[in-house]
Amino acid sequence: MIRVLLVDDQTIIRQGLRSLLEAKPDLQIVGEAENGQTALQQVEMLQPDVVLMDIRMPGMDGVAATQTITQTFANTKVLVLTTFDDDEYVSQAMRVGANGYLLKDTPSEELALAIRLVHRGYTQLGPGLLEKAFSTPIVASEPIALPQELAELTPREREVICLIAAGASNREIAESLHIAESTVKNYVTNILSRLHLRDRTQAALYANSFLPLLENSG
User: Exposed e or buried b for every residue in 63-75, given b needs 16+ CB within 10 A?
Assistant: First the structure.
């Protein structure tokens, strides 16, 4: 069970997130906070696995709270969930240690998957946010690299998952790679099995977080 803390200054947003995420059997909402300062108190008391963090809130904002959480609570991951996709917000959040950055229009299934992946240690970025996240240098303790399970995909499997991330159907993938559609179906099945993912939506979300690395990995 993944323990999740919801941090947002709007009560209706927290209620909506609670309703959506509590429907997932592996996610447990352990608490809520309306600003960064309350979030710090809740993290210390509840020790959540993942914090869903809004950015703009009265008092202590999400960036400041994220920095304190990542510096103080090593076992708690922070996944930013906000309406703001400004370069500065994305870059700041990632620079202070956020494990991911998504927008509030992210579908519930993709949000749940992102929480699971962040809990496992992966970085999650919504579509189009990768360049914004690295628009200014980020000091990292380790070089950014593909997770082992992605690195172990064959070159053809990497081509297929990149096309899945771009929203291509099996037929479109077959035409692009000049292979049979039945062969594409086999590749998709193998990819989902090797990455321990349930469906194409999960594969697309996962691959999007590492798309530039996948495309340049040969």
Answer: bbbbbbbbeebee
